[in-house]
Amino acid sequence: MRIIIEENYNALSRKAAAIIAREITVKPTAVLGLATGSTPLGVYEELIKMHKKEGLDFSGVRTFNLDEYYGLNPEHPESYHTFMFKNFFEKVNVKRGNVSIPDGMVVDVDQFCTDYEKHIRDGGGIDLQLLGIGRDGHIGFNEPGSSLASRTRLKTLTEETVRDNARFFGRKGQVPHFAITMGVGTILEAKKLLMLASGENKAEAVRNAIEGPVSSQVTASALQLHPKVSVILDGPAASLLKRRDYYAYVEKMASQVQAEVET
Ligand code: F6R
Question: Ligand 1, residues 66, 126, 129: which to mutate, most atoms within 8 A of Cβ?
Fold first, then answer.
């Protein structure tokens, strides 16, 4: 696991955007797994800038979102559909037909989830999956207790997640209590994973995920089982890591080696 600790949220966002941009540059038909929430907003802003100023081209890119609230219309102002179009898709040249987000209004949920997984497979699998982390250690909406082999399905959100997300809805009563989410097993099938965390309120979840035991109680800890994971943190999110100095040292050594290769 590569642990990158950046000075602040802006630097974290720039670093993550650079990793995603490299993926698209190397493979213009890359399949990206995307996340919503506060954390990736800066990354999307950076990618939009790169598209506008440097011509970063999304025309061949295919995307699959991790999750969507169940019971919300795609047009609902707080749906993840609305989030993705408003904050990213409308501002770059991703083709509408190349975008997949779980449908929060679907009636036959099981069939929908099976089809969603099939679309991912038919698209060649996800090349790079972007992830945030919940305060309870969730990835996607794989709340504590989710099987580490779980697939795309309907999940009941924890009280903590409902409370955390109430900030977007105005009132807790309006926050959906269910979501359709890729499973941990689905996420682990992506070729590369990129998890981001910012702020002190994520420090405990980050420590448990990176340095704790692999456990369904902290589904982000399943990242320890994946061979190609980068985690980008800001200082406060990294503050409880026991080995933070070592992670910083590894990055310093890696950039020295890189510099030597380039000279
Ligand atoms: C969103 C998602 C969630 C969030 C997590 C953190 O698509 O999959 O796992 O990444 O809840 O949310 P923020 O970034 O708002 O703290």
Answer: 66
CB 143 within 8 Å of CB 168:
no
Token couple for 69: 């609230």
Identify the three-state secondary structure at position 111.
helix
Domain region containing 158: 2-262
pLDDT band at 24 (very low <50, low <70, confident <90, very high): very high
Grouping H, G, I as helix, E, B as strand and the rest as coil, residue 136 is coil
Segment 162-195, tens digit of pLDDT = 998 888 887 656 889 999 999 999 999 999 999 9
Q: Helix 9-26 and helix 41-54: axis angle, to 10°?
A: 50
Q: What b/e sequence results for 71-86 when a residue is b if at least 16 CB atoms lie within 10 Å of its CB, and e otherwise?
A: ebeeebebbbbbbbbe
CA dihedral for 53, 54, 59, 64, sign (positive or negative): negative
Catalytic residues: 67, 136, 138, 143
Q: Write down the pTM of the prediction.
A: 0.96
Which helix (H) or strand (E) covers residue 33, if one does? strand 31-34
Domains held by the chain: number:
1
Torsion angle (degrees, nearest 10) of CA 31, 185, 101, 94: -10
CATH number for 257: 3.40.50.1360
Tell me the best of 13, 34, 68, 138 to mutate to test the pocket of ligand 1, counting ligand atoms within 8 Å of each CB and taking the most. Answer: 138
pLDDT at 141: 97
Say yes or no: CB of residue 201 within 6 Å of ligand 1: no
E strand segments, 82-217: 99-100, 128-131, 153-156, 178-181, 192-197
